[in-house]
Specification:
Strand content: 25-35%
Number of strands: 8
Number of helices: 5
CATH topology: Rossmann fold
Radius of gyration: 15 Å
């Protein structure tokens, strides 16, 4: 991670990749005291971040670990009360990471909730499944990832 970042090789990390990049570049990652983050989560979008438009974005999540302290070189561009550093954009302009999953469909996220039953409290699983009736912006988030990876950058 550090070598790719230092060589300015474009990379995107999602969920564990988000955590891995953050930790490799100096951040702190650990199991959240808040427990499981599953189902549909709504994140506040940082203004003028250069990638995401709008004030909020909703996406499916499935994690216990999360970035607690981002690296000094990262700007938080997505946040929530549950996941304060849900999206990070790194100062070198070639690294982006996000805790939620743009690749998850509603059906897949719902199936993951079922798989968490017995690991997460039933009330958390039930609330997560119910949350999936709300719209997901996974296509928008996926488009951000695509544009980020295909953007022309100075050599």
């Amino acid at each position: 991670m550090r070598t790719a970042h230092d060589k300015r090789i474009p990379m995107v990390g999602v969920c564990f990749g988000h955590q891995l990049i953050a930790q490799a570049l100096g951040g702190t990652v650990r199991k959240s005291e808040k427990g499981w983050g599953i189902g549909r989560h709504v994140y506040q979008v940082a203004p003028d971040n250069g990638l995401l438009d709008g004030e909020t974005i909703a996406a499916a999540a499935s994690h216990q670990d999360q970035v607690i302290t981002p690296p000094a070189s990262a700007r938080t561009i997505m946040s929530s009360d549950f996941t304060p550093h849900a999206g990070l954009l790194y100062a070198n302009g070639t690294t982006l990471s996000a805790q939620p999953h743009p690749e998850f469909t509603v059906d897949y996220a719902d199936a993951l909730c079922d798989l968490r039953r017995g690991l997460a409290p039933d009330a958390v699983v039930d609330a997560a499944k119910a949350s999936l009736t709300g719209p997901l912006d996974h296509t928008t988030l996926g488009g951000v990832v695509t544009r980020f990876l295909t953007a022309k950058r100075p050599a």
